[in-house]
Amino acid sequence: FSSSTPIKATLFPGDGIGPEIAESVKQVFTAADVVIDWDEQFVGTEVDPRTNSFLTWDNLQSVLKNKVGLKGPMATPIGKGHRSLNLTLRKELNLYANVRPCYSLPGYKTRYDDVDLITIRENTEGEYSGLEHQVVKGVVESLKIITRKASMRVAEYAFLYAKTHGRKKVSAIHKANIMQKTDGLFLQCCDEVAAKYPEIYYEKVVIDNCCMMLVKNPALFDVLVMPNLYGDIISDLCAGLVGGLGLTPSMNIGEDGIALAEAVHGSAPDIAGMNLANPTALLLSGVMMLRHLKLNKQAEQIHSAIINTIAEGKYRTADLGGSSTTTDFTKAICDHL
Amino acid sequence: FSSSTPIKATLFPGDGIGPEIAESVKQVFTAADVVIDWDEQFVGTEVDPRTNSFLTWDNLQSVLKNKVGLKGPMATPIGKGHRSLNLTLRKELNLYANVRPCYSLPGYKTRYDDVDLITIRENTEGEYSGLEHQVVKGVVESLKIITRKASMRVAEYAFLYAKTHGRKKVSAIHKANIMQKTDGLFLQCCDEVAAKYPEIYYEKVVIDNCCMMLVKNPALFDVLVMPNLYGDIISDLCAGLVGGLGLTPSMNIGEDGIALAEAVHGSAPDIAGMNLANPTALLLSGVMMLRHLKLNKQAEQIHSAIINTIAEGKYRTADLGGSSTTTDFTKAICDHL
Ligand SMILES: CC(C)[C@H](C(=O)O)[C@@H](O)C(=O)O
Ligand SMILES: CC(C)[C@H](C(=O)O)[C@@H](O)C(=O)O
User: Fold this and answer.
1) Is B180 in the pocket of ligand 1 (CB under 6 A)?
2) Is the full-model pTM beyond 0.85?
3) 3-class SS at B25?
4) Are A283 and A70 in contact (CB under 8 A)?
């Protein structure tokens, strides 16, 4: 790719603050001379019978065709029997690995310095099976499903990621002392893959201990790979270490080279349309998308501009203690380019 | 009770560092003039067929008879098919609520000041059902079981605890956006109980968000009640905020007034017998046991002596950056009484 060939990418602006922060991404990309032909997708207003979701068949086709996309926050419309939009995307597009880097932003102080963690979450099964039953009244069960297939591919992704990103260590997070069969299978897959990467240090850490150690000393960890729910929990915990989900990007990886970058924070309906939202998480997710497209130079430029704007501290949105609007913050980033 | 009537209580010294830290508790209690007639229980060397565990029928009877006890760390001997000792205790004694207070120890600095949290964990079911199946090769399932009975009793315990301890707020932690039926039932029980305590502020918090907020600002929380695995995770996270499991006590509550206080850290076989272990978690668990016995004066005396010894900083064990032996640290506490 060169920056002058327009690349087609799906864009889900999402709802709530989604359109505003998506607009910020477009402006910053344009200012950085990144020419993306955005294929904008809006979630349906009625349930599409082909997906049993407000997410339509066409929405899904767009990602499958473009193979790359960026997604803002989407709140699932209330109503029974329809799947969460986020989960529909993950399942239907087979987005099997969710990568969430969490690193301290220079200039934005939290209790922790120099955090630099990558959580890699299995994204399609586990506790998210949706299989739940009431057996007798007052006795309910949920099924956690772990498969060798999904565990192998996420483990393989994690070790390949570690290797290609110069990372030294992969920690597999589990509770196999209690769920010996499910988490045991997950660990066995990690063991098998780890054996193919002797240069990467590999360890297994029980989830409760992992959370305690992350809070005490996050520098103990590097890349973390884990089943779905543990990934949900630990990626939020890690985000908290560096300031929260408003500052952390993510990318979902599917088969056949599909990649959907995503801001995982909520749609913040209370401030929607008020030009108050912080676009950082979506911008940094956009940077991950550019790196995936091998537009590394532009990715680094944009990344530096975001980091420097926040570090400078003159333009910050309210969630970071500033009083800038979304558009002023965006303009400041463009000026840094 | 008066301090001169000997009270009978079960003591499981446990293994690894267990006997050393149990000895510390005995010495401190004696120095504080607390007369306990300890009924010492040692886990069997063979599996007891009546419990299918190394924990014997007699071990369990001791707690059922005395109704109160203190437990050190126990590592489950390796071998297939035998239940974890800790889980056997919880299940067989129906220890339905696990209470873990986490508070900043004055004088022991961490990244967080003034942490003051109580996690109350459902302790008998959920993800700890032990029900796991391989359906087809490479496809494994674990069952999470949530019952109305267990959810109601732990919710009731949590709100009663909040009320009797002057707490203002109870947060029910869940993932009902994904596990609508199981965690949904848990929440419904919390809702029902909350309605009977209008003076206690009640909120529901999704577990991922809870972990992020705990890390960013633990002062947002007060009492937290949750299903088993979330309690396992969040109580360790909270312990991490104040220095780790070596400093945090716990107590398990059963039906008919049974209470088993417990240090939840590991048995640290690497330093066992070396007079290096930190007895603080077991000592503070002992203090919880004394409060349960309404020996409040002695409980407060011992509590202050522990806190003051740590705050003074002259005698600290290696895990807290000092170089004191277990016995010197214990003696320092006794001297503070
Ligand atoms: C919104 C919710 C269904 C989702 C999840 O649980 O995966 C979110 O927490 C996330 O991490 O993307
Ligand atoms: C040792 C283990 C089985 C136990 C648990 O998972 O409950 C421990 O982590 C705890 O919190 O007491």
Assistant:
1) no
2) yes
3) helix
4) no
